[in-house]
Amino acid sequence: MKQDQRLDTRDWDLQLPAPAKLNLFLHILGRRPDGYHELQTLFQLLDHGDQLNFRQRLDGTIHLAPEFPDIPLESNLVYRAARMLQDASGCQHGADIYLHKHLPAGGGIGGGSSDAATTLVGLNHLWQTGLSKAELCELGLQLGADVPVFINGQSAWAEGVGEQLQAIELEEKWYLVLAPNCHVSTAEIFSNKSLTRDSSAITVAAFLEQGGQNDCQQLVSSLYPEVAETLNWLSQFAPARMTGTGACVFASFADRTAAEAIFKQKPEHLDGFIARGIQESPILALL
Ligand SMILES: C[C@](O)(CO)[C@H](O)COP(=O)(O)OP(=O)(O)OC[C@H]1O[C@@H](n2ccc(N)nc2=O)[C@H](O)[C@@H]1O
Ligand SMILES: Nc1ncnc2c1ncn2[C@@H]1O[C@H](COP(=O)(O)OP(=O)(O)OP(=O)(O)O)[C@@H](O)[C@H]1O
Q1: Which domains does the chain have, with CATH numbers?
Q2: pTM score, two decimals?
């Protein structure tokens, strides 16, 4: 289906955020026979992200706007999530969807996954398809390992491939996130021979006491000098770490003012944002 650039953007039925996430640490414990990696991570949801508008259609078609030159419609996780929900529920309705994209793709902050989660939750509400949160998570997992945490809607400790979630109360902090000018493909990093995959499993209590690291950081820094440079720059001011498989890096601060003081000094070629860590996603209200 051709993307519809001339979508009527008035009178939406629903407007929802798709929050970003950070992996406060990421340990790779091993590799499953299907190639996916067993990991432990701490997902911190942020009050910054993409925005989606939805309007019900009676003709069963899914229209997504605007056009994203780098992402064919059938590959867009928003379109795929909408089609998946139609197929799983037998729903005859369609939707106009407008995606206000703010998050960098391939940034390790879960943009595409969060867009997919918001689409599943939003359309389940709009179409009254009545799938439970667990059923939506099961569908979401087929789109990406990071989708369930956004459907679950809580900052969480995660195990398995990232889908076994345990909500965790985190200290409220502000995060400065910097986006080096490169896209890192998650599949490329997870398939790299040099990735270390032998971290020992730790408990939540041990992590809270000793902290953790990002097992992908060294490899990504060696493949993408932009990531290494950004980590070096931010490390001058605060402990800096990469999120997910990169490319974004972050540091935490007790308040917004402290984060802003560093943000003001950032090199011009770096994009980025400041966000507050949130316990719950705003989309939880719909579930
Ligand atoms: C690195 C993290 O961002 C941490 O939150 C996620 O584990 C990645 O989640 P995601 O982007 O939703 O990943 P998916 O779209 O499911 O998978 C992208 C690719 O990464 C690899 N992959 C992903 C997750 C995982 N636990 N093990 C993997 O090996 C797979 O080869 C897959 O082909
Ligand atoms: N709605 C979407 N937004 C962004 N990327 C999308 C979307 N739909 C499909 N994609 C594809 O997914 C790829 C990864 O995008 P995404 O922004 O989720 O990466 P990421 O931030 O590294 O995610 P994660 O932290 O979950 O690994 C992109 O390169 C793009 O081709």
Answers
A1: 14-167 (3.30.230.10), 174-278 (3.30.70.890)
A2: 0.95
